[in-house]
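WARN  no MSA supplied for this record, continuing single-sequence
INFO  ligand: heme C
INFO  echoing inputs
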Amino acid sequence: MKSRSSAVAWTIFVSLALLPATGFAQKATYAKDIEPLWKAKCIACHGAAAPLIEEFDKNKEKYTKEMKGPRMDSYKLLVDFVNGGDAGAIMRRLDDGKSTKDGKPGNMHQFLGAGDEERKKNLQTFKAWVGNWTLKRKAELTAEERKGFLIAEK
Ligand code: HEC
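INFO  complex generated
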């Protein structure tokens, strides 16, 4: 009886220990993982009050001074910075320096969290969602590399 209940306890313990791992193995989606994170960390400067990229590009300096980056407050707008017109921008800006040529983090990396731990965790979430963490621009991306983007919406 005793060994049986300890076996049960052990099974529960192991299942609980594996929970984060299985959670992580699940597909990352915009709705579940990115939107909440984006709302917490990016919306202040990339939300509805920010200009669309076309407008932003015309007046970069002015908007940057106003702490406004290009607007990214929807799935469609955000993925443009992953594999669209501004492909690789999310990766170049959020990278921690491990994938950049000069070893320096992208200038939006700091906004991923208040401390190293949180930034690391949130970068991992973006990486899981993007799939192919390449810093390449649109013109440099091969068809093969494009296939590597996951960027699931739901
Ligand atoms: C305090 C304001 C602020 C916050 C918070 C912020 N950004 Fe930015 N972001 C800017 C500004 C201003 C620019 C434009 C100037 C520049 O390129 O550095 C910018 C530029 C960018 C670009 C480059 C866009 C392009 O022109 O290709 C990306 C990508 C980006 N931000 C992503 C993010 C993400 C993702 C977050 C959240 C983790 C975030 N930013 C948080 C202000 C902010």
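The radius of gyration is 19 Å.
INFO  checksum written, moving to next record
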